[in-house]
Specification:
about 140 residues; alpha/beta; four-stranded mixed β-sheet; 8 strands; about 15% helix
Length: about 140
């Protein structure tokens, strides 16, 4: 997942039972590759109905990786409003596609449009409660 001698930082999201659905949505929206590891077969003890939940998953697209898992049974998750995933797209077409696809079913807080700082930028909360920003630097 990480090249030797290269420092990276990646978002790690936690969902309560719908991690597979969220990562599948991100994979399709970002045209990425998804890997999933379920609790079944691991040494972690979970209830029988939880064994098919995601212990660790990832979506890789371009040079980026989003990782996630389902919470442990009984754990509560609050995604909050103090963080977001920022995608710096390579092109206007890519940025528009990411914004349109990822915001589907969510709530747009700032439309994807030209800004005073010379970028096309927008913000939204997706249908899973995750905050996103999409940016394309104007050439």
């Amino acid at each position: 997942m990480q090249e030797k001698n290269r420092t990276t930082a990646n978002p790690y999201l936690t969902f309560c039972g719908n991690c597979r659905e969220a990562l599948t949505f991100y994979k399709e929206s970002l045209n990425g590759e998804m890997e999933l590891m379920i609790y079944d077969g691991s040494p972690i003890k979970v209830p029988e109905d939880y064994k098919s939940k995601i212990m660790h998953g990832s979506v890789k697209f371009d040079d980026a990786v989003i990782m996630a898992s389902d919470c442990m049974p009984g754990q509560e998750i609050n995604h909050g409003n103090g963080s977001a995933i920022l995608i710096n797209a390579k092109s206007l077409d890519e940025g528009e596609a990411f914004f349109s696809q990822l915001s589907e079913g969510g709530k747009i807080s700032m439309p994807f449009e030209d800004t005073f700082w010379g970028a096309r930028f927008g913000m939204f909360t997706d249908k899973f409660g995750i905050n996103w920003m999409v940016s394309v630097e104007e050439k």
